[in-house]
Amino acid sequence: MPYQESPHYVDETPGTKYYCTCGESANKPYCDGSHETKNTGKSPMEFEVKSACRMVICDCGKSKTSPKCDGSHSE
Length: 75
Ligand code: FES
Description:
By secondary structure, this protein is mostly beta strands. It contains one helix and four strands; from the N terminus they run E-E-H-E-E. The longest helix is centred in the middle third of the chain and has 4 residues, at 34-37. The two termini are 22 Å apart. The mean pLDDT is 94.
């Protein structure tokens, strides 16, 4: 499952999240361990969500504000 050219809209809850950065997770935007089984050489991004909010999570791998989408997928 490769990177996609659109972000994920997620209603997040507070806590520590691990977002996929390799593009291979079957549970995007979250890491499911595929980066290891598929030997991608990447690791998940740990991110602390302070309070419940709607987040837009990058899935193209190009965002400069990762894990948040910055619109780079449409450039
Ligand atoms: S599955 Fe992609 S970073 Fe873990």
